[in-house]
Amino acid sequence: MDDDAYLILKNFFPNIDFTEEQERHFKSLWSLKTFNQYDFITEAGSTERFFYVVLEGVQAIYVLNEKGEKVVLGFSYTGSPSGVFDSFIQQEPSKAFLEALKPSNLLAISRSDYMSLFETYPDFYIWGHDFFQQILFGRLTREVEILTLSAEQRYVAFMQRCPDELKVIPQKYLASYLNMKPETFSRLRASVSY
Amino acid sequence: MASLILTPENQIQRLNLILNKVKNLQELDQSRLTSPPNAKSWCIVEVLEHLSIAYSHYHKKFNEVFPQLSNLQKEHNAFKARMWQKLVIEMQRPKGTQRKWKMKTMKRFEPLLDPKTLDKAKIEQVFQRFFELHGHFKESILESRGKDVATVKIPSAIGPIVQFYLPESFEFLLAHMERHMVQIDTIMEQQKTLVSS
After folding, report:
1. Euclidean distance between CA atoms A100 and B115, whole angstroms
2. Which pLDDT belongs to residue B197?
């Protein structure tokens, strides 16, 4: 793992201090996975094997509705976590797909190694508390936005907070995430500033 | 009649469900795998062997057709099945737990196994062949996502009277597999009845 990659990884676990030996061990648990654009990282019906931290690229997590259309649940991007977490923890087949929307490099840790982090380094429990709190607050914010805001308000709120690398993925994924038709997204993009 | 829209994502998801189910079947006792519920029915291992025989035709055709397909320069689109092909696919597809349109298996698709002589090694061989062939099926669906699939047709296993584009052939195979998964559920139900009566 090069220094840049480790910096991204370390930023993801901000409050954890290692000795040199611990750091070597921690690094050794992660492997680099590379995906081409539109590769499936995880398929629905398969079991998630890894927890990821994204070094590069954008990924979408989505389920298929009854018509077979993709319903986007979220995105991951540089510096963020990725993977189908419920399948990873429960070791049950995933209901969702995780797809690389751009060529992607991800650092991956297996379930047994992920679990061992908590046992070996108790600081990870604090990290876990903060991490899941952050995830929960993020999902609550999204739920409120989906249920209470107009399409235009959802578009503005999302575009104001989303990183630039997410703005260049195919519009249909952003539209689905914001629960609107691609045509509506396209119209808002052309007419609304944020 | 409503359109039949085919996507590789939907097909992969359904294929994974079937593969998981067959993996679970591997855990069953030998007697459950090799006991037909009645003299006319197949046992579970024979059903799996039939699926492997049916796929063998497409295995060869897929290997022939992929080099002829050009690469897509953009994300693939959903594929709309054509009328006649849709009809053939829907005849295979089970309706819930019912297998409508009962049909006689053509001789060349019959599993040439004698359930009485099926031992552990032979059963293992049937599962292995099933997973190898259907691993190829999965790879084929995945590969098709980057190809222009609306250019080359392949004859179905039924004969050249039905010609499929790749997504149609995938759907036909999946509907056929789903039909036989229903058959396996029925066999297992009937086995339970036999044990309890």
Report:
1. 46
2. 59
CA distance B193 to B197: 6
- Residues recorded for chain A: 194
DSSP B117: G
Amino acid at site B83: M
Dump pLDDT digits (tens) for B40-83. 889 999 999 999 999 999 999 999 999 999 998 788 788 999 99
Q: Which one of A38, A46, A67 has the shortest CB-CB distance to B75?
A: A38
**CB hemisphere CA count around B63 (13 angstroms):** 7
Write the CB contacts of B95 (distance below 8 Å, at least 6 apart in sequence): none
Give the C-alpha separation, A132 to A123, whole Å: 14
Residue B47: strand, helix, or coil: helix
Instruction: Look at residue A100 and tell me whether its pLDDT is greater than 90.
Output: yes
- Chain A residues within an 8 Å CB radius of B75: 38, 170
Minimal-distance CA residue of chain B relative to A102: B75
Cβ atoms within 10 Å, residue B44: 24
Q: What Å distances lie between residue B161 and B85, B153, B155, B176, CA to CA?
A: 10, 12, 8, 18
- Listed by start position, the domains of chain A span 3-121
**In chain B, where the domains are located:** 41-70+121-197
The closest alpha carbon to A97, from B25, B16, B75, belongs to: B16
Each residue of B84-114: pLDDT tens digit?
A: 999 999 998 998 877 777 777 777 778 877 8
| 3-state SS assignment for residue A158 | helix
Biggest CA–CA distance in chain A, Å, is 55
CB A46 within 8 A of CB B138: no
Band (B196; pLDDT cuts 50, 70, 90) = low
Provide the phi-psi class of B99: left if phi over 0, else alpha when psi is between -120 and 50, else beta. beta
Contacts of A40 in chain B (CB under 8 A): 12, 142
The architecture of the domain spanning A3-121 is Sandwich (2.60)
Per-residue pLDDT of A22-47, as tens digits, reads 999 999 999 999 999 999 999 999 99
